[in-house]
Amino acid sequence: MADEQSDLVYPGGKVRLYVEDSLGEGLRVAADDQQAHYLLHVMRAKAGDAVRLFNGRDGEWLATIVEVSKRGCSLSCRQELAAQMSVPDIWLAFAPIKKTPADYVVQKATELGVRRFLPVFTRRTIVSRVNLDRMRANAVEAAEQSGRLDVPSFAEPQSLASLLAQWPADRTLIFCDEAGEAPSIASALANLREGPAAILTGPEGGFDPEERAMIRARPGAIPASLGARILRADTAALASLAVWQAVRGDWR
Q1: Which of 10, 43, 100, 137 has its CA 20 to 30 A from that of 74?
Q2: Which of 60, 82, 104 is the last residue of a domain?
């Protein structure tokens, strides 16, 4: 297909937007209220300007703004820029933490390629409520900015016992155990079998002894150490994901 990008104008820079609608040559997409405000009033876009769109199913498409009104705008797909591809099959199961660190974890873990987030309540978890809408909004923004072609999914918050009871048998659970004897995470991952995996990190105060024993007793759970220093909950999640990507993921 011929390159149609040379004659296009981007509004203040190349904008990527995640949309729910199907994408394909000639298909129209209506921007939602927030997206329309961002395009028209923040980026000062106008009819004819170019935007990149993705929906997690149809790849990434070059689109142009074809209709602008007081109520919003619509875009028309012109050219496929990238075919759909998936991130490695890694999940992050984590104890919810305070709002600002939680935002950071979701944003950066999305950039690091997490496919699914699983908030898990433990005995030492301080946070009592999880705002999944806020988490998803952070994930969408991170996907737009990082060039990712999909957005992670989110499980409903659940207890640690419930998580372990329903854990899929074919998915390895890498347990970041800061209090017990365990090989380094790099060593544990080097010997890991191929297939889907997940990383489990605890709350600010760590897992209690009974929880640690319960996790270690789960078939397929692999304890791993993150080193000699005690890491904050948000640091532990991102550090372990970075090591996983380097050893087992798409950084290799």
Answers
A1: 137
A2: 82
